[in-house]
Amino acid sequence: MSEVSFKIFRFDPEKDKKPYTAEFTVPTKSGMTVLDGLYYIQEHIDGSLAFRSSCRAGVCGSCAMHINGTYRLACETQISALNTKTVKIRPMAHLPVTKDLFVDMDPFWEKYKHIKPYLIPGDEPGEIERLQTPDERAHLDTIIDCILCGACFASCTVNNYDDEYLGPAALLKAQRFFSDSRDAAREERMELVDGEHGVWRCHTIFNCQEVCPKDIDVTGSIAVLKRHLTADRFSPSLKKH
Amino acid sequence: MRYHQVIVVGGGLAGLRAALELNKRNVKVAVVSKVHPLRSHSVEAQGGINAPLGNHPRGSHDSPELHAFDTVKGSDYLADQKSALRLTEDASERVREMEHWGVPFSRTTDGKIAQRPFGGAGFPRTCFASDKTGHVLLHTLYEQCVKYEQASERGEMVVYDEQIVTGLIVDDGVCHGVIVWDFQTGEIDVIKSEAVIFATGGAGRIFGKTTNALISTGLGMAIPYWAGIPIKDLEFVQFHPTTLFGTNILMTEGARGEGGFLLNNEGDRFLANYDDSSKAMEVAPRDIVARNMTREIMEGRGFEDEYLHLDLRHLGRDKILERLPGIRDLAMKFVHVDPIEAPVPVQPGMHYTMGGIDTNELGASRVPGFYAAGECGSVSVHGANRLGGNSMLETIVYGAIAGDSAAQYVLDGASGKTPDDTIFEDARKRELSRLDGMFTGAGEENPADIKDELEETMNRKCWVFREEKTLQEGIEKVEELLERYQNITLNSTGLRVNFDLLWALELGGNLAMAEVMIKGAARRKESRGSQFRTDFPTRDDDNWLHHTLAYYTNDGPRFDSSEVDLSIWEPKERKY
After folding, report:
1. Does the global pTM surpass 0.90?
2. Is A1 in the B-facing interface, judged by CB distances under 8 Å?
3. ipTM of this predicted complex?
């Protein structure tokens, strides 16, 4: 049986003066994931290690963390794929550390809530479903795959200097409703993402797109919102073309 | 001490739907969820949700009666028939309401909700959003909760996430609230309420080989069980035919509904060789397919004596990308197989607990003020075997019904009793000292070892095929583990963000429910639906056409039975 070394960021704000790195030796086997390794440590070496997890299948969004140089979901990252003897793990950036890899997600959720993340239809529903053609529905493909894990938020460099920036996940959610043929609050939501902490803060660095575990074109979605807002400002001359 | 008129425990589909119903009826509700609601196991559901919409040309004649009959037949006649009919009568309205709230369902060419075939139904009835139906339903329900949370100025709708309910407050036979452990602050608090609805999900993590999330433990069923509410029919465990070899991550039944094949190591579609699956083939009900797969593997026609092949290649790249992108992604990430190019290694795995907290057809338990909905409860609409696509339907139909029942109870004045505040404070103190006691135990047992042994025991002794000898061996082992659990020691102390303590509590719930499950399986000497006894291979309506009830006692579960509602259809042999 082979082994790897886990080097993990540790910090309990109620006990520790400052963060430190703890090292653990973990026996590995075929198919083993980083999350399996964290559980091995928590169950057999140090029960105080704190990290979130739930589905262990890459769909619930609990376990995004910084693993060997980039943000990924621990549950779907196989140790062998890292091709290394050392697994280095840090918590998500831009969010306060509650304990170890367990961060306070509230700032992330507040931004999600800011963009009115729910369908705002323009009419009362009828007896049956609202109709939506397969083509209209296709506009929502991949956007709706977002699991709100926060990897994009943590990777975004704009968050380094602007705490109030809405961030990629919230903007993506805005575009999800913006693109839905059933939604009637385009302009209302546009106002929420306009402004100095909204879409204009995005510098198109593509970090969010690169780290997205669901391969969503997050940066592109922000660009769609920008284009719409820009077109509005140039109108009517631009709209003619 | 906090107060809300009604507390919903659990932020998955059933819990959020119940909360929305309470909100609709102007009853102030708090959802208490041990994880953020979007991390609930509901998010993993893939294939779809049944409703007799008739949107598919082959299902245009569908009706609630046909859907209910399929459900009852699928249950091997152990479902309560009026409950099953209520499930299907409400189905279309509830599913369309989800669409009105924004669920991005896949669509037919004329813009309606698309439907696909699933096991146990003669034609396509399962509404879907590619193979991520649970994900979009859960996100949409949570979005609606956010909407009402934002709209409420007086806290009519509150969601407390990462707060863990560890006990119920039951006084003089009436439920008055819950004890809550705030995981982030470490505080133990009481929330008073007029009513409590449990929507805590299933108990898959009793087993090692399960599709369930790590958080799907028996604790949500065990808490009411310890408080005196019986558990119904827990021996009926659904084994899903197609779970990924190695991790047991779900590969949706929709893969077979869309036309996927199951192949043995001879390349043979072996389901044709068994009487009970030769006609329906891959879309025979889950219990039948899981058994025949297990037989193939046991008789040496599997791969590495462990798994079979789910072959989707003939569906073609476009259909796989359109209809099954999620499971393709999972197969590529977890077993490095692209279903477009190669068959996927699958084996049956624990998937669903048909049984659960005993409730009546309105979601009410026998303790006034206590309700249950979704997988943790047992109404019962699934009986001895659940049809694919009916679990998500149950969450939104019976989530709404339980919410409505609790609202009515509160608006009618609840129990009329107002217990003294000392009851709550005493309960809080008792819980604090119980939890503290877990840090100072004298024993040497590591709970993780007990967990591993429990999972292995249930995998081996309470699996697809069961018999007296192995069940008794399993019972002995579970009893031994229950003893050893008394001697656990936690190496992390304190109540703040303590996963050692959390997993120890979850393990306590798993052990309690494993005991109920395996003793119930040994007691029921017949084969019905998901329970197959090799020593009693046929259904025995004369002696066993009734529900199992298990009551907590200090000496283990005391078993009793209750009648099945057979008022609509007469039990017949179940043939497909």
Report:
1. yes
2. no
3. 0.97
